[in-house]
Amino acid sequence: MLFSSIPFLFYFLPIVILLYFAVPKKLKNLVLLLSSLFFYGWGEPRFLVFMLVSILQGYIFGLLIEKHQGTKRSKVFLAASVIFSLGLLGYCKYADFFITNFNALTGMSVPLLGIALPIGISFYTFQILSYTVDVYRKDVAAQRNLINLAAYIAMFPQLIAGPIVRYSDIALQLEERSHSFEKCAEGIRRFVLGLAKKILIANILGELVATFKASDDKSVLFYWMYAFAYLFHIYFDFSGYSDMAIGLGKIFGFDFIENFNYPYISGSITEFWRRWHISLGSWFRDYLYIPMGGNRVSTPRHLFNILVVWMATGFWHGAAWNFILWGLMFAVLLIIEKLFLLKVLKKLKVLNHIYVMFFVILSFVLFDSLSIADAFHNIGAMLGAGGIPLISTEAVYYLKSYAVILVIGAVGSTPLPAYLVNKAKTLKAGTIVVNILEPVCLVGLLTVCTAFLIDGSFNPFLYFRF
Amino acid sequence: MSAKIKNFVLVGLCTVFIFGFLIWGLIAPDGEISKSERRPLAKFPTLSADTILSGEFMTSFESYTLDQFPLRDNFRTLKSLTAFYVFNQQDSNDIFIAEGHASKLEYPLNEDSINYATDRFQYVYDTYLEGNAGNVYLSVIPDKNFFLSQKNNYPAIDYNAMINKVTENMPYAQYIDITDKLTLSDYYTTDSHWKQEEILPVAQHLAENMGVSLKGEYTETKAETPFYGVYSGQSALPLKADTVTYLENEYTQSYTVYDFETDSYIPVYDTDKLTGNDPYEMYLAGPKSLLVIENPKAETDKELIIFRDSFTSSLAPLMCEGYSKVTLVDIRYISPEMLKNFITFEGKDILFIYSTSVLNNSITIK
User: Fold this and answer.
1) Catalytic (active site) residue A317
2) CB atoms within 10 A of CB A292
3) Per-residue b or e along B316-328, where b marks 16 or more CB atoms closer than 10 Å to that residue's CB
């Protein structure tokens, strides 16, 4: 089930909220768990088994790791849990990738498994991994209540597209959390803004991306429009989802970590990755980069660590070479920045932002490509290769049609709107105006989003399959 | 307003909005059809273990909730107004507004579709017409974009290329160009079709090129029911209604129209259809696979067989004046293989007349 759908907004959510606040405190996690399983099963009921088995193994191994803490057995149980989690993820997500490459290398024709990827498996696998590793490291105590652990892993607000909430961040909240009118209002505010980002910007720009891909009348202008449309599409899609997840979390009394912090205003790629998909970046930092030695090793080993982490980051996003290359591209940029470029970038005012946006745009063209060859074709076309015209009637038409949304996307991906609202709030009259306008605007946005959902058909979530 | 009141108002308004529509949706009776979109609305899906496990129930339930949402048409209008006037989008659901007309984006030229259509026409020619029928003619009806697109910078198909392709693929047919007999005002503002009261010059031009003369003296009757065309519903914009006008004279009043589908005679102009889903269906009862119009007052025994789409429903009554019998064949609704059971082609003139939109989307042709 998608957040941005009528069944979720007008059936599932109100019923779950009603049940959640109607039951006593000790049953609230059970309501969350059951509703999360229903939410998950609604999309693909057969994949519930994968999730339930994953939860069970995480629960059992967590207890065993804790029970045998300080002994070799603890390590064995951790290894078993990690192998199980990564094995399931590998089987579901990467098996065909490896078979395809094996066939290409050997000339054999091992048949592909053709396994459909269970929704959100990359997210909940990483959550379970963080839980068992944290129990092993004694950062958290193992959860004895299966319902609480299952509610954490399956929790529908963040289940299918993150943020990757670590058990250690919400362990206490699973036992004891506060609900308040203010928190609920904050949650609604965040949810509606996320919904609007998704439906009114990401989906509309997604249509432009789809139109571009279907077009036979491509031009250099159209390629650049596509690149910018995809740049804002992926940001508003993913950050919109994170906003909705964080907002829903607040309604149910949880405080999830932030996942985005205006990444497109970054002055370096290093800064970009501190602002983009924060929960994934910090996960790889804490569970892969640091265990490999991080930067407290020799320079060659440090560079190797960076390459491995970013290759894994790319591979996490998808089982294809363009995703690996996407990760490696960032690894190379980060290494160059670490070696010397960062110091230069810090002295620049504008060029550093142009540098970041140029490589981020190229990276997302690579990310969205069907293959590496397709990526090079698209990037080449953006630079005028291939003999395509500079402009075409179609490109001009769609530029006119999507100019306003592109501008909204550009402005909305900066802190400017929030700055203006906060600036207004510094004045007494401004506070009154903002307080009056805020509920009206949010309900207005909810109404318009509903209208777009009812009339719209283009509504995929980019990160749905990750 | 304090922050506390603001939060109270926000939570209250959102609660009323979401729970209100939940309850409204649950208690309101389900609608049967969407008049504006001219289609049946989704019904509550069958609930069973099979439909749940296959995911069919969930997919159908989503369609059901979208179709049966309270105030659905109002929400669709809100969406279109936002797209057009807030986001300045040039079209909504591919419908654009220019020069007071709503029209649908139709591009690019789909050569495969044209080849498919002309392949089917070729089958008709090879099977029934070659060395058997009289003269074979061809005409192409431009859609509104022919007049709107270039002037208003909307992408459109290359009409010259389309006509060249069709004529090249149909060397057995004599092409009759009607594009210079039409202007934008000859089309309804809210619909894809042309107005019968404006296409008399087209009928006369076609007839003249086929060796027939039409007097073209008619009395106009304006229907009182407002006509909201297909683009009105698709765009969901509050467009001004068109008026359906139909032309009558002593000939049209004497025509008999035989419908092979229902094995019955139907009126030339069915005014009951004016209050139906598609008022344009008042002309020869809309989509019909096979009709024969007989003209008892004809001063000739010439017969014409027209292979056509919906545009000819309003054109054919004007053409009949010059023929004793006109057969209308719509091979989107009847397979050409079946025609031998109903029609004899010997010595009869044949006209293939299709709109550019059907030629560019010919998958419906059998």
Assistant:
1) yes
2) 14
3) bbbbbbbbbbbbb
Q: Which of A6, A421, A422 would best serve as a mutation to test chain B binding (most B beta carbons within 10 A)?
A: A6
B93 interface with A at CB cutoff 8 Å: yes
Report yes or no for ipTM above 0.90: no
* Contact assignment for A446 to B17 by CB distance below 8 Å: yes
Same domain, A400 and A381: yes
- Domain boundary, last residue among A153, A177, A201: A177
Helix (H) / strand (E) containing B325: strand B325-329
In a domain, A1, yes or no: no
Interface check A447 vs B, CB under 8 A: yes
Which range marks the domain in which residue A352 is found?
183-465
Task: Mark yes or no for CB contact A6/B69 under 8 Å.
Answer: yes
Q: Which DSSP string corresponds to A43-104?
A: H-GGGHHHHHHHHHHHHHHHHHHHHTTTSHHHHHHHHHHHHHHHHHHIIIIIHHHHHHHHHH
Nearest CB neighbour to A181, from listed B11, B58, B154: B11
Q: Specify whether A139 is located in the same domain as A223.
A: no
Nearest to A6 among B5, B58, B65 (CB): B65
Residue in B with minimal Cα distance to A433: B1
On whether residue A86 sits in a domain, the answer given is yes
- Render pLDDT for A30-70 as a digit per residue (tens, 0 to 9): 999 999 999 988 877 888 888 999 999 999 999 999 999 88
Q: Are residues A141 and A197 in the same domain?
A: no
What span, in angstroms and rounded, lies between the C-alpha atoms of B26 and A103? Answer: 54
B169-214 pLDDT tens trace: 999 999 999 999 999 999 999 999 999 999 999 999 999 999 998 8
> Which of these three, A159, A177, A195, is where a domain ends?
A177
Same domain assignment for residues A247 and A109: no
* Sequence-ordered strand ranges (E) for A79-189: none
Amino acid symbol at A383: L
Number of domains in chain A: 2
CB A40 within 8 A of CB A120: yes
Give residue A465's pLDDT.
46
